Amino acid sequence: MSSRPPERLPHDHSHGAGGHTHGLVDPALVRSRAGLRAVSLSLGVLAATAILQAAIFAFSGSVALLADLVHNAGDALTAVPLGIAFFLRSVRGERLAGYAVVLAIFVSACVALYESIARFVDPQELSHLWALAAAGAAGFAGNELAARIRLRAGASLSSAALVADGKHARSDAFVSLGVILSAACVALGVEVADPLVGLAITLVILRITWDSWLTVAGRA
């Protein structure tokens, strides 16, 4: 007669209708929720920043602010394809969303370039310079906060698209400081500084486009 103890069957630790079950949580679901949370938070921050800047542009007329505004609005919209990719839990969709981010950055650079050249051809006097400087400060704060949200989530989730978007937002934070520079120069009587700063912002955005492309393509 064998002395081996009887085998124990697996126990799911379920306890009736009012009980509970100890099981594993799907890692893909956890990642999806974390990605959606980061994308939603950064979208809200950048949307609020863009709305504030749009209100100030309406009565200041600064092309430097317009360049920053267009870029911030485009940056906020990049959250849409990223959010869809995380919702669908699609790695391929996430990669495609990264390319959409790069395209959005490039389009915003083209718009900023057009508006800056148009302001050289048809100069306009700026007003409400203190409000203009405040808009630049708001752009800096909003983009820096969005960058921290995206970079932290991108690193923890190993998401190239989120990392690229985070680097993009952090660079935009410093681009927004150009709006403050434009207001300061115009206040000193250098009216041509506004379209010049607009062109400088355009160049920075183009550099961001290239860096973001390298980040996304390198992780593809």
Q: Work out the number of β strands.
A: 0
How much of the sequence is in beta strands? under 5%
CATH architecture: Up-down Bundle
Q: What general form does the structure show?
A: elongated
- How many structural domains? 1
**Total of DSSP H or I helical runs spanning 4+ residues:** 7
Radius of gyration: 24 Å
Keywords:
single chain, 220 residues, mainly alpha, Alpha-lytic protease prodomain-like, 79% helix, elongated
Structural notes for this entry:
There is one protein chain. The chain is 79% helix and 0% strand. The chain has a single domain, classed as Up-down Bundle (Alpha-lytic protease prodomain-like), CATH 1.20.1510. About 8% of the residues have low confidence. The longest helix is centred in the N-terminal third of the chain and has 34 residues.
Topology of this protein?
Blueprint: H1 27-60, H2 63-77, H3 79-88, H4 91-121, H5 129-157, H6 160-187, H7 193-219
Helix pairs in contact: 1-2, 1-3, 1-5, 2-4, 2-5, 2-6, 2-7, 3-4, 4-6, 4-7, 5-6, 6-7
Produce a short descriptive summary:
With 220 residues, the chain is mostly helical. It contains 7 helices and no strands. It has a single domain, classed as Up-down Bundle (Alpha-lytic protease prodomain-like).
